[in-house]
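Project outcomes to date are best conveyed with an example. Our students and postdoctoral researchers have been running inverse folding experiments weekly, and each run begins with a structure described purely in tokens. The record below, which covers 167 residues, was selected by the lab manager from last quarter's runs and is presented without edits.
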């Protein structure tokens, strides 16, 4: 039996990963005659720093005991610290520093873009609002699916992206 845990982007709702989880579960059923399990880790709402996300990911790994960890987006930066030696597959994921130095949660160029999006209190809009509507329609052309995604999204403080992981 194979157990796969998805570590999601801290910016997206669980709904964004249900299709991936279903596809992985279907693949496991076909390959291993019905045996296997897939779960999606939870992320604290509006994390103020990487410690909260890392703690949630470590707890999910410990409780689910996966054989494989799959990361997406910003969650890739957490994989080495959270997976505890379990093999990791990165899907369109940011990677931690190869040197072992602290890893910024956003490269300088992205951080500059995000600074322009933050409100007066230093909060960012939900991820899908970082980009023009026509760009989002190219990524997710299903209007109802985009609406559902946006309904479940959460914003995070700009300070989250100014932090480093492993510092």
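After processing, the design step wrote out the following sequence:
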């Amino acid at each position: 039996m194979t157990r796969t845990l998805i570590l999601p982007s801290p910016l997206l709702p669980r709904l964004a990963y249900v299709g991936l989880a279903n596809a992985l579960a279907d693949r496991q059923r076909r390959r291993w005659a019905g045996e296997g399990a897939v779960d999606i880790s939870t992320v604290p709402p509006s994390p103020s720093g990487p410690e909260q996300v890392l703690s949630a990911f470590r707890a999910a790994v410990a409780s689910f005991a996966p054989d494989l960890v799959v990361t997406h987006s910003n969650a890739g930066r957490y994989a080495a610290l959270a997976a505890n030696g379990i093999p990791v597959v990165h899907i369109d994921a940011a990677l931690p520093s190869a040197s072992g130095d602290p890893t910024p949660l956003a490269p300088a160029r992205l951080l500059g873009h995000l600074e322009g999006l933050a409100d007066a209190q230093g909060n960012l809009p939900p991820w899908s609002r970082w980009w023009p509507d026509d760009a989002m329609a190219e990524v997710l052309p299903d209007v109802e699916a985009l609406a559902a995604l946006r309904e479940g999204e959460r914003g995070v403080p700009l300070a989250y992206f100014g932090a480093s992981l492993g510092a």
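The helical segments are 15-31, 50-64, 79-82, 108-115, 133-139, 143-152, 158-162. The chain has seven helices and six strands. The training component of this project remains on track.
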